[in-house]
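QUALITY CONTROL LOG
STEP: pairwise intake check
CHECKER ROLE: data steward
CRITERIA: each record must contain a sequence immediately followed by its structure tokens, with no blank fields

ENTRY 1 OF 2
RESULT FIELD BELOW
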Amino acid sequence: MMSKLSNVWVFSDIASRLPEVIAGGVQLGEKVSAFVIGSEDEIAKAYSLGATHVYYLGEKDTSKIIEDYAETMAHAISNGDTNTLMLLGATKRGKALAAKLGVQLNAGVINDASEVTVADGVTAKHMVYGGLAIGEEKIVSPIALITIGNGVFEAAQADNSKTGEAVSVSFIEPKAAIKCIERRAKQGESVDLGKAKRVIAIGSGIGKQENLQMVADLGAALGAELGCSRPIAETEKWMERERYIGVSGVMLKPELYLALGISGQIQHMVGALGSQTILAVNKDKNAPIFQYADYGIVGDLNKVVPALISAFKG
């Protein structure tokens, strides 16, 4: 039987990732202490997923960002078990929070872990060299901080009969807080591609922005979310950053991944290799993506995509 830590701390800034983060805590710790920000319903949800203790940080406050809670969390963690681990979702906010906690707790941090074990100290595996290899590292500090990617732990199933102990934690003001002057709605819909069962991704082979509508129609026919390669999001800015798939973007584990006009460089493919089935369409028969694809179509997107739409709608 795998050994466990006496306590594992958990936190997720995105509600949809909480079941996986808590599942990791249950697997690795005898106790699971969850930090919760929000309504009392969120406390009950944490219990239902397997948290044994909840450290309640109060209702959501629009004047605060997640990193503002670092001092508060660090104080609670430092007053607990000496040898402990904190798991966070590998989101932008999760990684920023882990970095601040690492400084305040003098703790080792590993980001985007694909596997975590505590049999002989806290060890994690994660991609290195732009996705060309998997590195395994051991954190030797008494407190370990790890952000985990999507699908590392199987999501916990809610059991509303479960309960636990709650502790209300007083907020500790950051020594150097970032002051929120104004909030503006972000253009485009927010999306969590890591949870999508079907994903269609576009690359530079799409040619022009007007062709996005054609791909959106295919997505509607397939019931798929849309994603993209890095140039589409960061150079062309045709799609929002949250839809960029790759080593420094989103890591996927869908049932189907359909890549349209994507060459298939390793920096992109590491974000898609967890897919159950990969289908690629590219006019270049020598494109690297065909080495990863389960099925491939060599052809012009302007002909192939309408044909696929027709076939799926039929």
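ENTRY 2 OF 2
RESULT FIELD BELOW
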Amino acid sequence: MEGGSAFAQFIPLILIFAIMYFLLIRPQQRKLKAHRAMVENLRRGDQVITQGGLIGKVSKVKDDDEIEVELAANIKVRVVKSTVAQVISKTEPASDAPKA
């Protein structure tokens, strides 16, 4: 009988962990995955907001986890891709078909 009561004492602990997982950990993982996808899909012409609050247009996407953002005419800054907080407007991808 002692073994059964010891297991019964752990049931609330297990339930608390399960609730914490579904309320905190899982949504954070989804948010991180969505942010990673947004950063990977950045391209030239996208208007972005950085975590520092700067708003600008992506002028160049570099391969090494870095982008160049134009804040105003002829004012460009290098920004680490992961510090982009939000994409305000996306540009359409360039088509490969030649225009007639």
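INTAKE CHECK: passed for both entries
DESCRIPTIVE NOTE, ENTRY 2: DSSP finds one helix and five strands in the chain.
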